[in-house]
Amino acid sequence: MQVAAHAPEPPVAPKQHAIRTLAGLALARSLLMNRPMQHIGPYVVDRKLSEGGMAEVLLAHRAGHSMRVVLKHVLEAHADDPDFTGMLRREASVAATLDHPNVVQVHDFVEQQGKPYLVMEFLDGRNLREMLKRAAEKGRRLSPEVACRIVADMLAGLAYAHARTDAAGRPLGLVHRDVTPSNVVVTWSGAVKLIDFGIAKAMHQHGAELTRAGQFKGKCAYMSPEQLRGATLDHRADLFSAGIVLWESLTTRRLFARRRDIDTLRAICEENVPPPSSHVPELPPALDAICARALARAPEARYQDAGEMRADLVAIMHAMGWSASSDDVEQELHALFDDEEPAKAVGRETGTTTVIAEAPLMTPEDAGEGLYAEPTPPLARGRVTRLVLAAMACFAIGALGTAALSAILR
């Protein structure tokens, strides 16, 4: 008995395909417009910016106002713990008093269904870790003058925070505890901001520090020896971390990160630190000296305050004729991400301060000796990039409507 073969389906004409895609987009837009807005306290959530092992970051605006803010929900696993929430609220209240051009502004602290949210300014740019990683991918380094300018601005923010006092003039004893390239943000206009003051301390006090997969590997490579030992910390622990950030910014290489956590700890506590000029011979010896002093294992042998370290760094910049300004930092950022258009930040349109979407925490594959990312030969990289972009474009044209619907209906 013969079985009739199924006739192949006629191909979809390009015009029909376009109509289907547009119809899907129209339906998705309709569903999106009719979806009830999510409110967290007085803030209306616009969209999720990122989600990692440590935090969920949302873009929002205050009801009745146009200025965008970031809502950061910290550590989901401990969100329903009133002790942790109380610690975070106290740290947020201190962070909210910090008012400096190189420190991100904390506006508010709100709770929604027992979940704590920090409300911060929204930065439009990239963090230093992303800049170093992109530079390595392009087979280049940051210019030394721009690297020094970024770290000098970061140190200005640290010096301000470390020197803060209460109303009676008593030192607050602020310690960031998490000075890493991921927490140094460079905006598209060349501003440099240190983020997440107070969060690491609240996590440490609650015993929640470094408990998630990948989080320890990303953070411990920037910790001081005394922090790894669990000793009482002062502001000099931040200066050790700042020394690592400076070293890596000058070389575009990882200093202490190793594939195994135990090897990272051993590197921080025992191994000799090579001068940055061993990788970049054109760097002046004075920069080697700054890194060596900042990275002294004994706190008393380090710089004793961030202002002193910054003054030495600025002096070298003047001696070398490096007059890097925020314009130079801006140009460097655009040169690194020349294939990306900066987002049109609401802040630019309204005259308010702009800020960021936080980058995800460092993943295990980012750790290890050597470069932030192994450089790809330019020809191969360009060809691969074109192929990937072509494939993505082909996929997006046919699947955009369906994908938008799926994302909403999930």
Explain what the structure shows:
The protein is an alpha+beta fold and 410 residues long. It has two domains: 39-375, Transferase(Phosphotransferase), domain 1 (Orthogonal Bundle), CATH 1.10.510; 379-410. The protein has helices at 14-34, 82-95, 128-137, 144-162, 199-205, 215-220, 225-228, 236-251, 261-269, 285-294, 306-320, 326-336, 346-350, 378-409; strands at 39-40, 43-51, 55-62, 68-74, 106-112, 115-121, 125-127, 184-187, 192-194, 253-254, 370-371. The strands form three sheets. A six-stranded antiparallel β-sheet has the order 1-2-3-4-6-5, covered by helices on one side. It has a three-stranded antiparallel β-sheet with strand order 7-8-9. A two-stranded antiparallel sheet has the order 10-11. Strand 5 and strand 6 (115-121) form a beta hairpin. The radius of gyration is 24 Å and the shape is globular. The two termini are 46 Å apart. Mean pLDDT is 77; it is low at 29-34, 208-217, 344-368 and 373-410.
- Gyration radius, rounded: 24 Å
Number of strands: 11
Number of helices: 14
Mean pLDDT equals 77
Terminal residue distance: 46 Å
Query: Which residue ranges are poorly predicted, with pLDDT under 50 across at least 5 consecutive positions?
Result: 29-34, 208-217, 344-368, 373-410
CATH class categorisation of the largest domain: Mainly Alpha
What is the name of the CATH topology of the largest domain?
Transferase(Phosphotransferase), domain 1
Overall outline: globular
Main sheet, how many strands, which sense, barrel? 6 strands, antiparallel
- Derived from helix and strand composition plus strand pairing, the structural class reads alpha+beta
How many domains? The number is 2
Task: Describe the strand arrangement of the main beta sheet, using strand numbers.
Answer: 1-2-3-4-6-5
Fraction of residues in helix: 40-55%
Report the sheet-strand fraction.
5-15%
CATH architect. name of the largest domain: Orthogonal Bundle
Specify the CATH homologous superfamily of the largest domain.
Answer: Transferase(Phosphotransferase) domain 1
Order of helices and strands: HEEEEHEEEHHEEHHHHEHHHHHEH
